[in-house]
Amino acid sequence: MKTIGLISDTHSSLHPRVSNFLAQCDEIWHAGDIGNMETARSIAALKPLKAVYGNIDGQDIRGFYPLYQLFMCENVKVLMIHIGGYPGRYAKEARQLIMEHKPGLFISGHSHILKVINDPKMNLLHLNPGAAGHSGPHLVITAMKFMIDDQNIRDLEILEIERDGRKY
Fold it and tell me: What is the number of helices (H) and of strands (E) in the chain?
């Protein structure tokens, strides 16, 4: 059994309340648009970090993190990519990866909109944690944490922080 912290779109900043929220997790997964290596290192200092690069990430991030990650957590196959869309509207590359690898959990970022959607057609759960940073169109900073216990994804918690315009 593992507790996973899930974030995306930090854009070079991480609110201290997000760090506190993630502190009790076993791992942190970042669905892209990290922003810079300093942010990646500060997240990785909290807990082991799995991440993908996003469209705003430079060569430093792209040289260290892949476009997508495919891995097992407990007995759940996980696919994570930054620009992935969502059920019924998957991005072309994400759809191809889903069809090929058949994950039970599909994670994407990019939209800055938190989403939790079951996709019975693809037999997966889609998670998008929204945006944990201060930059972008979102009005609320968001993060998720959940447990993976064998094949069960459960106990989803959502953190919401009203944006106040400050950088962290």
Answer: 4, 12
3-class SS at 82? coil
Q: What is the CATH number of the domain that holds 140?
A: 3.60.21.10
Cα–Cα distance measured from residue 133 to residue 109, given in angstroms and rounded to the nearest whole number: 12
CB 34 within 8 A of CB 57: yes
**Chain segment 35-94, per-residue pLDDT in tens:** 999 999 999 999 999 999 999 999 999 999 999 999 999 999 999 999 999 999 999 999
pTM above 0.85, yes or no: yes
Q: Which residues contact 110 (CB under 8 A, 6 or more apart)?
A: 8, 9, 31, 32, 33, 54, 55, 82, 83, 84, 128
Q: Looking at the 3D structure of the chain, how many domains does it have?
A: 1
- Range(s) of the domain holding residue 99: 2-162
